[in-house]
Structure formats: structure tokens, C-alpha cells
Amino acid sequence: MKAQDKHIKIINAATKVFAKKGFFNARISDIAKEAKVADGTIYLYFNNKFDILISVFEEEISSMIEQVTNSLVLEPDPKLQLRIFATKHLTMMKKNKNLAEVIQIELRQSTKLIKDYRNNKFSEYIDIISTIIKNGQAQNIYRADIRPGIAKRAFFGALDEISRVWSLSLETDYTVEETINQIMDIFLTGVLIPTPRTE
Amino acid sequence: MKAQDKHIKIINAATKVFAKKGFFNARISDIAKEAKVADGTIYLYFNNKFDILISVFEEEISSMIEQVTNSLVLEPDPKLQLRIFATKHLTMMKKNKNLAEVIQIELRQSTKLIKDYRNNKFSEYIDIISTIIKNGQAQNIYRADIRPGIAKRAFFGALDEISRVWSLSLETDYTVEETINQIMDIFLTGVLIPTPRTE
Amino acid sequence: MKAQDKHIKIINAATKVFAKKGFFNARISDIAKEAKVADGTIYLYFNNKFDILISVFEEEISSMIEQVTNSLVLEPDPKLQLRIFATKHLTMMKKNKNLAEVIQIELRQSTKLIKDYRNNKFSEYIDIISTIIKNGQAQNIYRADIRPGIAKRAFFGALDEISRVWSLSLETDYTVEETINQIMDIFLTGVLIPTPRTE
Amino acid sequence: MKAQDKHIKIINAATKVFAKKGFFNARISDIAKEAKVADGTIYLYFNNKFDILISVFEEEISSMIEQVTNSLVLEPDPKLQLRIFATKHLTMMKKNKNLAEVIQIELRQSTKLIKDYRNNKFSEYIDIISTIIKNGQAQNIYRADIRPGIAKRAFFGALDEISRVWSLSLETDYTVEETINQIMDIFLTGVLIPTPRTE
DNA sequence: AATGAATGAGCATTCATTCAT
DNA sequence: TATGAATGAATGCTCATTCAT
After folding, report:
1. Whole-angstrom Cα distance, residue D140 to residue D144?
2. CB contact under 8 A, A185 and B24
3. A34: number of CA atoms within 13 Å, CB side?
4. pLDDT higher for D13 or B100?
5. How many Cα atoms occupy the beta-carbon half-sphere of A88 within 13 Å?
6. Portion 76-95 of B in contact with A at CB < 8 A
7. Which nucleotides of strand E are protein-proximal, with an atom < 7 A from a CB?
8. For A57-71, what is the mean pLDDT?
9. What is the DSSP string of C10-37?
10. What is the pTM of this model?
């Protein structure tokens, strides 16, 4: 319990520090200070610096999966489900800039290092998209010739690039609402089965 | 001439090393060895390690801009132009894994550091997409209510995520051709002005 | 306590190493080895190499000031006070060759770097001489037309040059006693044969 | 001839650079630039960096010996000769700050390195003082119990400390004239108020 | 469990020196 | 003679990790 608390405290601190400085520029002592523990204490809960990074992902992405999943169970319509995913994802990213940065930057930077590991958790998150699409296809809402494995990449990539720019504060031209509308418009009108023409 | 050669030789070596190890894990001595010059020689051509990274981007992305632009001038149709961009981008990424990795990983990792700088060159590349879209809107081919600034992110993000997975060798399920078809299908059918129904 | 010990241990080691090799030729690792600590440990107590030099001065000169001052309070006669200063200074220099070298060599070498800083402590030491002279003038023992500010330089310079040669082991012709006698003789009454007064 | 010119040009440049930055902080390229030759050219005239330092001394001190000697031959009075030495030395030091710095700083810094070598030339300079004193003793002008070997150190040390402070621009309270008067006064007749002779 | 002082491997960068031209 | 591009050894400092307390 107490141990679990400290574990989380360190992960939260690490998320903040990684986001601010990047993995390689982050110091263990930075994380320790942020978590208000001694440097050595960190090694009671993690094997090494990289292990912290892994845990940050594990933790944060699990949380994202949970949140998104919770929202999705309430909505059966695959069309709306996709919008919910987009909304949830972008909202979380906008709300938690630290998390966004870590996802954005560290995910890439360390991908090769993480590779085997990370796939599980992170893939699980992205696979939510393909699952939605498959469901939609089963319900004759999404085109059958769309490859869920490719579509999930396209959809996630679009959201990811949007939030990348946000996290850099490079563009603030559009609201979250407007952006989602555009993304969904582009994506949905494309993957939807065209309504049959009545002649 | 000679100097220019060495400059390029170092950039190519750096691209390779950065791709393989990432910026922070790359050693100057690695780059020097790869370029077959002495460590000190590198500092005759670059101010510091980070300057090499900047130069790698500058060089590589300039080259990408040039290649893509050259292909585009031959094709006036905005619909096909978008496909050409996608094809060129994914092909370049698939062909030059080193470059892909650098773009993928370092672009993010170092974005905060690069920020102001990088925007110029990299933004120039992505803006090719929005320019195509604007042209297509002017020609009544792309829907007028599509925001080119958002669409370019969605389109690039989709391609980027695709090539990210490729560069990790995580997925090789689909051919380039098939993938592009899917991406274009998703994206185009969405942004195109629906042809009016004739009844 | 423990920390203070290590601080002093490093300063002593640095004094020895600086004396032996000079500031620029001294390696941090030399000092660390001499102090029997790890290289990194030095940076727990000092900001950088130059800071060590500063601290060596601070420490050593403070000690000299203290020793000289302690001796002087016991002797009210300004004439003897000057001799005490000379004796103390030369004895300390002879006894602690390392210190002498550091004072001799580093004081000059780094003066421009140290300038503002060092003046305080080192000037304080030299000003002991001018203070003695001023007291002597007030007691009608030293000539009123002597400028204490110039005389202190002449007196210190003489001692300094003597100990410089000693520390180089260039000359060992005279004993400390004899040398001091000569110096005091010259300084107090001059080298000229007094012209007989005609009355 | 041409070669000799370049040799001197480099020495002059080195004197300037050593004075400004100190031996260890001076770069060969600094000297080359100052001398308006290529870096490599310096190695046609000197064996290494340290050799340049040696040559700078050799050159400069030789010049000082020559100048002082020239002035002394015109004045037979040992009392005035000492004043001439002081005046010449301080004037040269004040006029040529670069030289002064090199003498001041480098002389000490590198003494151990130079030791054997330098003694010859530099000792020759200081021995001018002891020679004057010996002459004065032979003429019954200077006290016979004064050790010329100690007196020369005292006299040179006094002048040296004065010019050290000058070269640091730490004190500008007194004119050269006034300073020399004081130094000569102290050295020749001492700081003590003469006790009246009881006859 | 917690601490934080100590460790020491590791690296970007500099610069005296060389040598092909 | 003269050049200056190239070399590569050398080092101050950092920081992840350990371990005595």
C-alpha cells in the first residue's frame, strides 16, 4: 500500500520530468526531487532509469485504455465510437501535456529500445481503433474493403500528428471541437459505406 | 569541393548512426568512424553534435522536398498529386530506413530543442500537402469546408504512423501499393466533393 | 564534520598537486588520487577546477594571516613586528614548499582570473605590513615620509623574491636567520654607508 | 634575413598573446593569426609551443639587459646606477604591459619548466644589481656587510612587486617618479628614523 | 525501507602538431 | 618556404548506480 503509493508517486514525477526534459536529459535526481524521495529510494522500486520509462508508459497507457474503454461501452454506434476515441484521445493529450509529450517524444525515441515490450500495451491502445472498425464492418456501417490494420494507423497517426503540434504549442488556430469535426469528417466520410443511390 | 564532399560524408555517416542508435546514444566517435575521419575533423565542419543533427535534417528534408516537388510539377491533377506525395513519401521512407528512423525518432525527440529552427524546413515539407489541397479547392475538386491546415496534419500523420511501423519492422502485412491505395481511399473519398447525384 | 574533513583533504591534495605541476598541468584525477577520493567526489565539494584553486588560496592565506597575526599581538614594537612578519613568512614558505609554490606560481598565473576575488584575502595579508608601518609612524619610529602603500610592496616583494628562489632550490647559500638579518637591515637602515654628520 | 624577420614577428606576436591570455590559455592559432602567418609556419621556426615561450624570454630579457646596460655605462656613481636600474626597469614595465605580464606571470608559472635554461638569461639581468652593489662596496659607498646576493633579490623583488600591481592596474595612486623615489629612499637609507648620534 | 554521499565509467570537445600540397 | 586541413590524444565534468548507515 505504502509501497504502491511511492511507486505511483515516482511514476508521476518521472512523467513530469520526462515530459519537460526528455528521457536522456532527465536526471534521476530530478525525478527524485520531484517525487520528494532520495535518489537511492528510486532504485528500491525500479531497476534502472529505463525501467522507469517503461513503467511510465505502462501506467499512463493503461490509464488511457481504461478511460477510453469506459467511455466506449456506453456507446454502441461504431460511428460515434470512433468520434469518442478521437475526442477522448485529444482531450487527454490536451489536458495532460506532460503525458502528451512523453507519448509523443519518448514513444519514438525509445521505440527500438522498448520495441518488444511496448508493443503489448501500446498496441492494445491502438487496437481499440481497429476493433471499432471491425465491429462497424460487421454491422455494415464501415466499408468491408477497408483494412482495419491500416485504417487504425491512419486514424491514430492523424490524431497523433494533431496532438504533436498542440504539445509544441505551434498551432492553436482551431478548437478541439472543430478539429475533431474535421478529422471525423475526413475519416468517416471516407470509410463509410456510401449510401446507395436511389434511382 | 573536397570540403563539400567531407561535409556530406559526415552527414551521411551521422544519418546512419543517429538512425541506428538515436541522437543521445550516438557518439561523435561513432560518426567519425563511420565517416572515416578523425573525431576532430567533424568539428571543422560542424559546431557541435546538435549542429550535426540539424544539418542532417536540413540536408535530408531538403532532398525530400526537392524530390517530391520534382514529381509534382509533372502532374496537374490535385487528386493524383496527393497520391504522388504519399507514394513518394512512403517510398523514400521504405527505401532509406536510416532517414526514416531519423525523421521518425529524432524529429520528435529533439523537437523542443529544434523547434524554431526546424519548423522552417520541415514545415515547408508538410505544407506541400496543404498547398495541394488549396489548389484542389480552387479547382472545385476538394471540398471547400476542409481546413487545409488540419487536413495536412491528418494526411501526414497517417503516412508518418504507417512508416513508423514499417521502420520498426513491426508490420509487413501489406505492400506499399496496397497501403497507399487504402490511405488514398480513406482520405480522398472523404475530402472530395461528392459528385452530385443525377436523378 | 566528515564533509569538512574531506573538504580539507581535497584542498591539501590540491595544494600539493598544484605546487608540483602547476594549475594547468594538474589533472583533477591527480588531485583525486592524492586525496584518495573518486574524481566525482571532488565535484561534491567544489564547483570546478578553478574553484579548487580559489579555495586553496582562501584556505592557505587565511591560515597565514592567522598565524602571523597571532605572533604579532604579542609584540608591541613596530620594529620587531616587521621582523616577526618576515620571519614568519619566510619560515612558513620554507617549511611548506607546496604552499610556497602555489603562492609563488599560481598567484601570478591566475591573478587576472582571480583579480577581484583574490584581492580581498591576499591584500589583507600584505596589508599587515602597511598597518605595522603606520603604527610605527604614529609612534615616531618609522619615517613619516614613507608611503606605507609603497613600502608594503617593497617589503613583501623582497621576501617574495627570496622565497621564490628558495622554492626553486636555486640558492641555499644563506640561512633563514642570516637572510632575515640582511633583509631587515636593508629595509630598516638602508644599504648606504651613513655619511658622518658634521656638527 | 627574411627568416629572421618572421622569427621576430612571431616572437612579438607570442609576447602579445601570452601577455593577454597566459601561456596555457594562448593558442598557437592565436599567435599565428597575430603574426599573420599560418599555424604550420610557426613550426618552421620553433620546435613547439614551449619553445616559443623560451624564445620570448630570451628575446625580451636580452633586450632589457641591453637597454639597462647601455644606460649604466654613462653613469659611474653606484648610487645613481641603482636608481637608473629601477627607473629603467619600471619604465619598461609600465611602457610595455605585455612584456610586464609575461615577465610577471609566465616567469613564475613556467619557472620549474624553464629552470635550468632560464637562469642564464634572467639571472644575468638580476645580476646587474649585484654587480652595481659590489662596485659600490669597492668604492666604499655601499656597506661592506651587505650581501650582494641577498640585496639583489630584495631590490628586484621590490621592483617586481610594484610592477606586478601596476600590470594588474590595481593601484595607480603614485607616479613612477614618486614610487622610484620611495623605493630608492627605503633601499638606500631605510625606513627607520635615524637615532641621533650622541657625541 | 530510506537515505544521500561516494563512485568511476563515459564522452564532447579542444588544440598542439603533422604533412600533403 | 608556406599553408591549413586533418589528426587523435587528452581531460574536465556528469550522472546512473551503489551501499554503508
Report:
1. 8
2. no
3. 20
4. D13
5. 22
6. none
7. 1-20
8. 91
9. HHHHHHHHHHHH-TTT--HHHHHHHHTS
10. 0.84
Asked if residue A41 keeps its beta carbon closer than 7 A to nucleic acid strand E, the reply is yes
Contact between chains at C190 and D193 (C-beta distance less than 8 A): no
Protein residue nearest nucleotide E2, by CA to C1': A41
Tell me which long-range contacts A121-126 makes (C-beta under 8 A, separation of at least 24): A121/A57, A121/A58, A121/A61, A121/A62, A121/A65, A122/A57, A122/A61, A124/A61, A124/A65, A125/A61, A125/A64, A125/A65, A125/A68, A126/A152, A126/A153, A126/A156
Q: How many CB pairs under 8 A join A and B?
A: 137
**CB < 8 Å to A189, chain B:** 189-190
- Residue boundaries of the structural domains of chain D: 54-189
**Residue B66: is it exposed, middle or buried by C-beta count within 10 angstroms (0-12/13-18/19+)?**
exposed
Give bridge partners of residue D142 from the DSSP assignment: C192
For B155, nearest residue in chain A (alpha carbons): A158
Distance from CA of A189 to the nearest CA of B (A): 5
- CA dist A129 and A147 (Å) reads 12
Can you read off the three cell numbers belonging to residue A73?
461501452
pLDDT per position as a tens digit, D124-182: 999 999 999 999 999 999 999 999 999 999 999 999 999 888 877 656 667 889 999 99
The closest CB to that of B162, out of A157, A168, A189, belongs to A157
Fold of D54-189: Tetracycline Repressor; domain 2 (1.10.357)
The string of pLDDT tens digits covering residues C15-62 is 999 888 888 889 999 999 999 999 999 999 999 998 998 888 888 889
